[in-house]
Amino acid sequence: MSLFTDIGHLLAAGMMILSFLLLYQDRITATLNVFAAQAIVLGLAVAWQAELQDAPHLFVTAAIALVVKGGIIPMALHRIVRRLEIHREIEQVIGGGPVMLVGLGLVALSIMLVFPVAGGVDSLAREDLAFALAVILLGLLMMITRRNAVTQVIGFMSLENGLVLAATGAKGMPLVVEFSVAFSILIAFIVFGVFVFRIRERFDTVDVGALDRFRGDRGD
Amino acid sequence: MIAPVYAVLLIPFVAALVLALVTNYRWGAAINIVACGLTFAAGASLLFVDRVRTDVVLIDDFNIYLVTLTTFIGFTTSIFSASYIGHELETGRLTPTFLRFYHALYQAMMGAMNLALVANNIGVLWVGVEVATLSTVMMVGIYRTTAAVEAAWKYFILGSVGIALAFFGTILVYLVAQEVLGQGLPAMAWDLLLRDAARFDPRLLSLAFVFLLVGYGTKVGLAPFHAWLPDAHAEGPTPISAVLSGLLLNVALYALLRFKMLLAANPETLDVGRIMIALGLISLVFAAFMLYRRRDIKRLFAYSSIEHMGVITFAFGIGGPLANFAGLLHMTMHSLTKSAIFFAVGHVAQVKGTQRMADIRGLSVSHPALAVGLALGVIAIAGLPPFGVFTSEFLLISSTLSRQPLLALILVFGLLVAFGALLLRLQQVIFGEPIGPVGRVKASYVPLFLHIGFVLAAGLWLPEPMVRWFKIVAAQLG
Amino acid sequence: MALILDLLWQAVQMLLVVAVAPLVLGVTRKVKARLLRRRGPPLLQPYSDIWKLLHKEAVLATNASWLYRTAPYVIFAATWVAAALVPTYATGLLFSWSADLIAIVALIGTGRFALALAGMDVGTAFGGIGSSREMLIASLAEPAMLLVVFTVALLAGTTQLSSIAAQMIDTPVGVRVSLALALFAFVFVAIAENGRIPIDNPATHLELTMVHEAMVLEYSGRHLAMIEAAAAVKLVLYCSLLACLFFPFGMATADKSLAAVSLGLASYLAKILAFAVLLPVGETLVAKMRVFRYPVFLGGAFAAAALAVFLQFVSRGF
Predict the structure, then answer these.
(1) pLDDT for the residue numbered A146
(2) Chain segment B43-90, per-residue pLDDT in tens
(3) How far is CA C59 from CA A46, B274, C77, C301, in A?
(4) Where does the pLDDT of residue A70 fall: very low under 50, low under 70, confident under 90, or very high at 90 and above?
(5) Beta partners for A95?
(6) Residue range B428-470, pLDDT digits in tens
(7) Which residue range(s) make up the domain with A106?
(8) Residues 6+ apart with CB under 8 A from B393
(9) Would you list the DSSP string of B375-435?
(10) Strand, coil or helix: what is B371?
(11) What pTM does this model have?
């Protein structure tokens, strides 16, 4: 077990821990900061992979993750959150304890899914893939357990972080896909910006529970 | 001259840029129609030129007719959209600034769907489906009512989750392919993947397919991942409902089927047929029962889309040459019929000013042409002969009966339940004394009757090349 | 002759932990004061405090039982034995065969148990609050601690501290994810067990925020001296565990020559003092948590440790 692969694993595990941390934050500003930290760790992990795999185009992805997802997007979201005046709200996060246990279960699930099946792939990619899947599933869990539109989208973006990690683990995946991931980040952000404002102006709140009352299917 | 396959991609994207700048609504609608028409011409010409295969684009038996179909329905919908949106402008439901947005997004969506269809790269396929989904999300929320925002938000969240899971599945497919095909673009090309699929690691491939099934299956609208579909159809503008039901669901299903072909080529993989059968039947029966309690006309037909997607998934799950053929035929017929229905429904809702079926009565008296169109469409989608949908359903049922009679029973039961609901609602809407506004409507009848005409023709006679393509693809699907 | 030498090295370790403990406490307080822009007490102040307390009269409540009088000695004894067993500057000392991690956890538990009983013995409200909070923290922290023990034990194949340290030094373990997670969990548990911010403020006497202080509020004189000394030794114990389990570099292993032992001593003291400086830095960065948030904090530690164990089970590569 060389030192280099160990550090690669460490960075991937760091992302997973930050996903856990995201699960129980109840202040929006704290959630944004943890997300920014996760994006920075992602950038480091991708850069490390770029070095290990000798794939210089991955440095571009690392830079995008660091600058856009670790810097620009959190800062812009901080501003939006201030404008919407929701930065003081404490969100009801659905049960800290049970959610953490479910999170642990998801990590176990992802490891058990990937390991027996990825025998042919080399071991570095296999373990990073397991961590990436864990981050994806934890992001999904975060989206499910949140009631606030802003934090739901942060959950989605942390899910995307997991996807980028998985994609870098797959050696030689052409640049096309990396650009598409970056592109999708931008589109998601635009959509998010548009929608958060629309939701706020329509409902005077970003609580997605309020959206539920207008579900057209009720009695229809 | 640009090769048609690139024209099919370039025209929509260029048109999108142009339309983003055009402020006048009439010019915008005209350019939209012209661009769609040109794209259709390019798509149709693909039938006559040599097949193309590069590292990034591919035209083969599977997507050649799909591209033609997609561009055709895009064209007819753009004609419908022109008259529909004109009315929305008059009533003030939409403003000209949004229409710039709307037209540009429409072209972007068409371009993205074409990209997904002609791509020879699993990553580019994913990009196409994603861009198409995101453009429709924005268009669904365009009315900015509370219900529209809710529908668009739900669609965004569920769609994004589906996209993310599908991407993970794509990565896994790349991982499994690169061991055999080496790194880089070759490990992502459809034809190369299909050629070497038998040498891939079966377990990893199966795992990849599960992710892809959940991810793209959300886009297809299979229960239990269907929650976004009814709201998105009901709250968005009707041209978007037509495009969603008629095109986007198909493109997502196309993606899923491409991956299923890989699994079919590798005999040791998981038997995904059973999962697809289960999902298909659940969607069918669930949607069929939900049809009874719907009060909103667009929501009714949204559930009908879920039902038919269930039938198609079931067909591909059962497998075998006859069932696969039936599934492919059904995909085509459903697109044409459902979009035709939405054309009619759109105008009906505009005239009556409401989407509630309780407030829509006596169309045969007040708007006979629309009533005829709607009636024909509903009869077609309910599966009555001599329309094409009947042909495909009949083929499917006979194929299933000979192999799994119990499943055939459930299939027939679901179809009958849906049949009952649709005809019941149709009768309520068409007959009786007219209530509500009965003014004239500047409707576009040509797209509506053109589609229905095609479906009728296909029920009676299928062109020889089409049958041949279907058979080849059916064999590949295993 | 060899036996005398071994006994000597073991005795050195036993005395070392007690001698160094008040210094560590002093360094912690000094650094914290400096960070808060105060000058702070002199480095050797804790020694003077203990000396002073030993010469003062112990005042007891009338209803204090024998438990109250003996508890301080039990606490000090348990903590001292535990601290003396943890390898500090050398592995393979005379009594190291008994230095089992689980036994050490049990010794710490014994000390805590005695302290909690003593807190409730006199029947004051403060004592009750302190004891119940201490037990809450213990019930959350001890599972996490045991999971950390398991992680390390799975890696090394044994729970005997000396062997673990020797293995970590000799075979290249590398930077492993499970060890990183276990380190993370261990730091949280150590903070909780030693009653530092964000769990407990060691310098407070406000009833809302006291845990450890509440239990020992009634003590005075030599009893208080024992308890203060025990608290300092506990801090050194956890620092030694941290150094031994996760940073065992520099310890003298089989070779007990003077040079190796001096290197071991020097590295041990350096590590202890480094931790003593890092601790107040960490404390100044965060605020004390409210009691209902303890489960969240310690649950995080538990989750990290559980993850570490799971990763160890799943793949030797982790």
Answers:
(1) 81
(2) 888 888 777 788 788 888 888 888 989 999 999 999 999 888 888 887
(3) 64, 80, 22, 40
(4) confident
(5) none
(6) 888 888 887 877 777 778 888 989 999 988 888 888 888 888 8
(7) 3-212
(8) B311, B326, B330, B383, B415
(9) HHHHHHHHT-TTSHHHHHHHHHHHHHHHH-HHHHHHHHHHHHHHHHHHHHHHHHHHSS--B
(10) helix
(11) 0.83
Do the two chains B and C touch, given a threshold of 8 Å on CB pairs and at least 3 pairs? no
* Mean pLDDT value across chain C: 89
A220: in domain = no
Interface of A with B in 10-69 (CB under 8 A): none
CA angle A77, A82, A86 (to 5 degrees): 100
The one-letter amino acid code at B258 reads R
Chain A contact set for C295 (CB, 8 A): 96-97
Residue A149 lies in a domain: yes
Give the CA angle between residues B157, B161, B162 to the nearest 5°.
115
pLDDT tens, residue by residue, C177-223: 888 889 999 999 999 999 898 888 888 878 777 888 888 889 999 99
Q: Is B346:B297 a contact under the CB 8 Å cutoff?
A: no
Q: Residue C228 above 60 pLDDT?
A: yes
Amino acid type, B427: Q
Number of Cβ atoms within 10 Å of the Cβ of B230 = 28
Chain B residues with CB inside 8 Å of A177's CB?
A: 123, 126, 170
Residue with tokens 């007219």: B434
Interchain CB distance below 8 Å, B168 and A199: no
Into how many domains does chain A fold?
A: 1
Burial B192-224 (b: 16+ CB within 10 A, else e): bbbebbeebbbbbbbbbbbbbbbbbbbbbbbbe
The CA–CA distances, whole Å, from B451 to B109, B245, B377, C275 equal: 21, 14, 9, 77
- Among A6, A10, A30, A14, CA closest to A161: A14
Helix (H, G, I), strand (E, B) or coil at B119: strand
**Chain B neighbors of A172, CB-CB under 8 A:** 178, 182-184, 187
Interface predicted TM-score (ipTM):
0.85
State mean pLDDT over B111-127. Answer: 89
Q: How many CB atoms lie within 10 A of CB C157?
A: 10
- Token digits for C168? 């970590």
CA atoms within 13 A on the CB side of B141: 24
